[in-house]
Amino acid sequence: MIRLENVEYIAGDFRAGFDAEIPKGSFVGILGPSGGGKTTLLCLLAGFAQPQAGRIWMAGEDVTQATPAARPVTMLFQEHNLFAHLSAFENAALGLAPSLTLSAGETAQVEAALARVGLAGKAGNKPAELSGGERQRVALARALLRDKPVLLLDEPFAGLGPKLRREMLQLVMDLQAERGLTVILVSHEPDDLKMAASHAAFISQGRMSAIVPIARFFDEPQLADYL
Fold first, then answer.
1. Exposed end of the chain (fewer CB within 10 Å): N or C?
2. What class does CATH assign to 2-72+149-226?
3. Which residues, other chains included, contact 205 with Cβ-Cβ below 8 Å and sequence gap of 6+?
């Protein structure tokens, strides 16, 4: 379980506060307007931002001061952050071995991860030779190779068409079920949450509503103006 305990974050004029519990193995969708604090929440969980007050707990451990590398978390961004001079195989392999010095077994793991996301024939291609959806699949393969129990998704499929977006969401759902991942998905699209999420919350002006089962979420009164 993930617990945000009276977490307060301030950056200039922006203030955010989070107090919530995220069930282990859940798929939590986060909906809300731009600038409301959705990405801030993920960055706090990942360790890319530090709160001024409060505590963040993961699996019973206080990770508030832990570095991103020390947390049981992988974050996938809207910008896939691939290196242009590296192949799909090499970009994915960074999740397993940043030095790119791989054993035979690790090479097989990278190949299997690429195959799992539908890129078995594209291992040698560089990002410029891949479509937007394929580049996101490489980033997802890299995330899988990190093999962390918490997956944070910051609108990673925002630039994709509806069909490919659904395919990518389904892939994440399948991987979550296979690995028992806890997934937190930030999105502007209610349909993403309806398709994938088991729970959801609304974030606006730095404050998050209670995390509730998805069946109740769209009846929440604070969603009316946004939707």
1. C
2. alpha beta
3. 36, 37
